[in-house]
Write a structure and sequence with these properties.
139 residues, 6-stranded antiparallel beta sheet, 4 helices, 6 strands, 50% helix
């Protein structure tokens, strides 16, 4: 096999590998994406982004997470929990209209996304209680 033929075969193999990866990404199940998004998202009746982020940080810490990064400007908080395994949660708080805040959580076990709704439900239950207590202690 001459150099040109070898080069051609290598290019074809590389391009077909890229095409397969692209196809797999685009073939993701839309219904499962919608289910994931609904598990990961809740809306809260508050427009105080700073207080919401402080409550998110406290909730993560109460659940045993160590805060890695937090940005009030971006509205993000990331934390890691090491307890025989590695779970990482990233939480985003975004204003929704004038009186609501959208909170979205992304959880990973090692590097795989967590698809178990119980994990998200536990976080949102704890966050809802903390948001309620925060709102009533300020009055």
């Amino acid at each position: 096999m001459n150099k040109r033929s070898l080069l051609f075969v290598l290019v074809v193999m590389l391009l077909s590998g890229c095409q397969t990866a692209q196809k797999n990404i685009l073939d993701s199940d839309g219904e499962s994406q919608v289910k994931m998004r609904s598990m990961q998202t809740r809306y809260f009746e508050t427009d105080d982004k700073r207080q919401t982020l402080q409550t998110i940080i406290a909730t993560l810490q109460d659940l045993g997470f160590v805060i890695d990064k937090a940005s009030y400007d971006l509205g993000t908080v990331s934390g890691t929990k090491l307890d025989g395994y590695k779970v990482r949660m990233t939480v985003v708080a975004i204003p929704r209209g004038d009186k609501q805040t959208t909170v979205r959580v992304n959880a990973q076990y090692n590097i795989e996304p967590i698809r178990d709704p119980i994990i998200y439900q536990q976080f949102f239950d704890a966050l809802s209680k903390a948001m309620f207590l925060t709102a009533h202690t300020e009055e």
